[in-house]
Write a structure and sequence with these properties.
The protein has 13 helices and 23 strands. It is of the alpha/beta class. The protein has a five-stranded mixed beta sheet with strand order 1-2-7-6-5, with no helix packed on it. Strands 10-21-11-12-17 form a five-stranded parallel beta sheet, covered by helices on one side. Helix 1 crosses helix 13, helix 4 runs parallel beside helix 13 and helix 8 packs antiparallel against helix 9. The structure holds flavin-adenine dinucleotide (FAD). The site of flavin-adenine dinucleotide (FAD) has 35 residues, from helix 4, helix 5, strand 5 and helix 13. Flavin-adenine dinucleotide binds next to helix 4, helix 5, strand 5 and helix 13. This is Flavin-containing monooxygenase. Pathway: Plant hormone metabolism; auxin biosynthesis. GO terms for molecular function: flavin adenine dinucleotide binding; indole-3-pyruvate monooxygenase activity; N,N-dimethylaniline monooxygenase activity; NADP binding.
Length: 460
């Protein structure tokens, strides 16, 4: 099979080779500015605004995109990564609060082929995680093209290629201008958290204080002494409340739905790790029962604090509805002590106050929306088979959502965090390597038969 490697090596590392077989002119020889290889080190070639990518194109340079690129690289497949912002892992670098740590222990958050350093704590902070991702990109020589926001991608049946259009983000900068990329494989890695979800709240334009999404919240020091209403009781909402308390603000937490709060650790180990281990031996519902009993022993009855538990157990709910349980990092104690008050849903806002569903009114200086994120895939991917238009996630349930038709893949849409993304990345790399080998085998057979026919005809 050595010939496959040889052909692959020649094709994939030839930046001017288009997969349809057209050899493009070398811009360095023609003098035209057609290549951006110097900047990105990647496998593109560029003719004015059209760029032919002979390998996979990955949209998004978050942990999932990086994992996919690294797994492909380890199999000798070079990919092109497009990223709308100006850095890798933009969610972590630009949209998270300062006190954030990984919610899960590090062994459940590492990307394929590179463990976290031993010196890192069990729950690395966000700066350590970003450092890890930067070293990861460096190790696998992943150099995304930044400031390229993908605005549309559709499959061209005639060319048998994906046509991916981007907008440049900055005028006059590296990302300026529209581009159209052509590639045989498209890997969607734009994440489950691509866009902030901002609910419509009646009277919000009238409200005199500041209203911000958690993606803009950095730390509680701006809110010292202020009354702040945090909307949403997921992991982010709970942790932002705790941060506000620690900065001497006076937070209240809007709890509209039922929620499972579990201790981050139980019986001397992480709740997540323990659950994974128990699930190997016991049925899910039994593990749920166990988690709820231990949580009750450690945290007490959360309903007494206004946090009612859903009827379904935490793991079953995660499986059925993708709703992640909150892992408590100290917020419950602050609710118990009265430092954080729990309120019902908001009915409307007025200039200075918030009116709640129970009719009560209270004045607040600021509102922080911990109302989550959503996928942006339906806004740019012109394909309706693989991804649901409703939530922008793959229609097929885990673990089958990673592969679509015509060379389309998804990484990081399993609702299973970094662990799920790593699994997707490995599968995608194996699948593309197999497809490439098949392609090169066909090319080899066709060329071989062509030669044989030619010599037979010559002899005649
Ligand atoms: C506060 C917080 C804490 C978390 N903690 C954990 C944890 O401890 N463990 C865990 O496993 N998971 C955690 N998660 C889940 C988290 O989403 C994943 O860990 C991880 O960031 C997912 O990586 P991703 O690459 O799939 O998505 P993202 O990190 O969102 O990366 C997607 C990238 O795609 C880019 N992009 C989006 N649209 C386009 C476009 N149209 N064109 C070009 N580029 C685009 C974005 O700019 C972004 O850089 C946490 C999430 C949040 C919000």
């Amino acid at each position: 099979m050595g010939f496959l490697g040889e052909i692959e090596g020649k094709r994939v590392h030839d930046p001017y080779y288009w997969t349809t077989g057209k050899k493009m002119s070398d811009p360095n020889k023609t003098g035209k500015n057609m290549s951006n290889r110097n900047k990105t080190g990647n496998i593109t070639s560029e003719s004015t605004h059209k760029i032919h990518v002979p390998g996979p194109l990955i949209v998004g340079a978050g942990p999932s995109g990086l994992a996919a690129a690294a797994c492909l690289k380890s199999k000798g497949v070079v990919s092109l990564v497009l990223e709308r912002s100006n850095c890798i892992a933009s969610l972590w670098q630009l949209k998270t609060y300062d006190r954030l740590r990984l919610h899960l222990p590090k062994q459940f958050c590492e990307l394929p082929l590179m463990p976290f350093p031993d010196s890192f704590p069990n729950y690395p902070d966000k700066w350590q995680f970003i450092r890890y991702l930067e070293e990861y990109a460096e190790k696998f020589d992943i150099r995304p093209v930044f400031n390229k926001s993908v605005v549309s991608a559709k499959y061209d049946k005639g060319e048998r290629l994906w046509r991916v259009k981007t907008n440049g983000a900055f005028k006059g900068g590296e990302g300026e201008g529209e581009r159209e990329y052509f590639c045989p494989w498209l890997i969607v890695a734009t994440g489950e958290n691509a866009e902030a979800v901002v609910p419509d709240i009646e009277g919000v334009e009238e409200f005199g204080g500041s209203v911000m999404h958690t993606s803009l919240y950095k730390s509680g020091d701006l809110f010292e002494g202020k009354k702040v209403l945090v909307v949403g009781c997921g992991n982010s909402g709970m942790e932002v409340c705790l941060d506000l308390c620690n900065h001497n603000a006076r937070p209240s937490l809007v709890v509209r739905d039922s929620v499972h709060v579990l201790p981050r650790e139980m019986l001397g180990t992480s709740t997540f790790g323990l659950s994974m281990w128990l699930l190997k031996w016991l049925p899910l519902r039994l593990v749920d029962r166990f988690l709820l009993i231990v949580s009750w022993l450690l945290l007490g009855d959360t309903a007494k604090l206004g946090l009612y538990r859903p009827k379904m157990g935490p793991l079953e709910l995660k499986n059925v509805a993708g709703k992640t349980p909150v892992l408590d990092v100290g917020t419950l104690a602050k609710i118990s002590s009265g430092d954080i008050t729990v309120t019902p849903a908001i009915r409307r806002l007025t200039r200075h106050s918030v009116e709640f569903e129970n009719g009560e009114r209270e004045n607040f200086d600021a509102i922080i929306l911990a109302t989550g994120y959503k996928s942006n895939v339906p806004s740019w991917l012109k394909e309706r088979e693989m991804f649901s238009e409703k939530d922008g996630l793959p229609k097929k349930p885990f673990p089958n959502g990673w592969k679509g038709e015509c060379g389309l893949y998804a990484v990081g849409f399993t609702k299973r965090g970094l662990l799920g993304a790593s699994l997707d990345a490995k599968r995608i790399a194996e699948d593309i390597q197999l497809a490439m080998n098949l392609l090169y085998y066909r090319i080899y057979v066709v060329s071989y038969c062509g030669f044989t026919n030619f010599f037979t005809l010559e002899k005649k």
